[in-house]
Amino acid sequence: MKSKMQTLVMAMIGLLTAVGMLQAVEKSASTKQGTLEIMQKVADWQLAHPSKFKPTSWTNGALCTGMMALGDISADPKYRDAMMALGRSLNWKLGRMVYHPDDSCIGQTYCELYSLYRDPAMLVSLRERFDYILAHPSKGKVDEKFPAEGIPAGIMRWWLCDVLFMGPPGWIRCYGVTGEKQYLDFMLQEWQATADHLFDKEEHLFYRDKRYFDKREANGKKVFWSRGNGWVMGGLVRLLQILPSNHPKRPWFIEKFRQMADRLADCQQEDGLWRASLLDPENYPAPETSGSSFHCYALTWGVNQGLLDRAKFEPIAQKAWAGLVKCVNPDGKLIHVQPVAGSPYRFDPNSTANYAVGAFLLAGSEQYRMHLLQEVPNATIRVTNDLDQFRPQETVEISLADLQAKLPQVTAENVAVMSSDAARWITSQLTDADGDGRPETLLFQTDLLPDQKKEFTVFAGIDRTKIPAPALKTTARFVPERYDDFAWENDRIAFRMYGPALVKHDGPANTGSGIDVWCKHVRRPLVDALYKSGRYHVDNGRGVDCYKVGAARGCGGTAVWAQDKLWTSGCFEKWKVLEKGPIRSVFELTYAAWDAAGRKVSEVKRISLDLGSNLNRMESTFHTSGTGPLQIAAGLTIHKGGKVSHGENWATVWERTDGKDNGMLGLGLVMPDGTFKQIKGNALFLKQVEPGKSLTYYAGAGWSKGLDFKDRESWNAYVEHFLARLKSPLKVEVL
Question: Does residue 309 carry a catalytic annotation?
């Protein structure tokens, strides 16, 4: 048996080891890598120790906001995967209380996942609830927890300060991913009402609810609960992240944020943390990490945004983070968390809770960004949408040369893009448009609200393998296992063109240079799975080939127009992949010379497809044996019963698909400066093209049984909006 001395020595060694480990963690947490590691440690502990609260509860909703923040900067997919698994297990449902924001808090995460994976199912329940509230607004007063006689219990306004974290960030995120302004307007109205009711203009802090207006702490001061004000500050950050910079209400929110930040700075204690009661720390001497985490999150974000004076607030924010890290056990458990409450009280210092972990991870994400901005050379890009139109998944393009003029350290190997409103790595791609092996252009995507200016931070010195992998991607490949097809797809639609082996198999009369369409129910890649199964014409729940092209033009094929007829090429002869995604796939197909009314004509067609776009960019270059321009046609095949719509520079066909119960297919064609012509079986745009010069146009499709278009009207609107965006390109500046 061990002696008492041996036991004591071993205990001392264990204690010293734990202290040493803690000191090492504290030191490393003052760097971006160390911050990320401690965040992952805390998140891993929480994932291994699930909360007893319902998955749709506000406690879990708060946790999920932090898990998403970690997933936005960590290369480990487990955090996003955990959120996806949770959403699927809940079928993207909310809690049962319709009017109480606590039960829609989880919707913030649904919106953030939607911005990554673009599955409309993620927003169905949230939008149904918000639309119901908009159609049936509460008639209660904002100061009533349980509305007055004649109004059913539960139909309440935002009567407590906690809901400014639970509710508004979800409403404004729903606006951000849909462009539907009614969600923003409601949020602004209700936020104002709650602030008018609960904000103390003398102390610049929020009462938890009206019960505390006349209450006083032991020292005679007003009762301001730390976590309650943390909910407000965290909610303000998550509101300001989305509220456009030119919105007239933004200065009002920034003023509230700054007023509260100044007051919270006065309340910080020597250990860097805040006490459960902000104005009576002596009566509640223990540190409290849930409120402190939100305060740290907000103050760090404010410094990173330039909204708070760096000289004053950066030391406060860093001191807060150091204090929080000391409250993490060696196994990753975050302690000193006040349990569920509505006011300050004393509690077990070893207590933890999932909502505090969410707040800790939010704070860590902004600390990570703070270190990143200090440790890695960077520059700011401003993107401007001049259209009064919502532009989801818009591709931003900027040349590396322009970047290098402001950021000389940037290279194709070390460049990475982060949102400027949050610590969120954004999928980017380097492209080599001229094929010389040296990338020249940086691509990334964003959602832009009408008339919005948005900023992004470009870093030079990032290992691109250590940031999150793309959630979605485009693909393009030669398919020798199926008669030399060439197939490509993005998150919305798929296409293919026939190759030389098919001519030998089916003959030239049944093949050609027309473009085939494959329809998708899902955002993930489909093409390889369909080829592997060999069952293209059977809907397997993910997608189906239900379009017939044969030797026709299909969805955007080209031809020479001469002597009032189409002169078409055969299948492609050569192929070359230029870009493999994830944002944009680009490839070239070469067509051997064919007869066009006595002239020999050959074509090189370059096709590119971006994420989020139903239309391909087509660039065809023609060479000919004769002299003078060629009249080139790009066309959409009109099958029996197909309905044609057209306007200036655009045309669509809406028709029934091939096969039983496969819905309707919309085909679209956009050609700037083209002339529309409809002949039997074809909707065409014509344009004269000089030999050796390129013709650029756009063609694609949308499916009624897919995720985006339910009827002809929605498809036509999409094509018209596509043309409007084409005519009003984004303005991109390096600041």
Answer: no
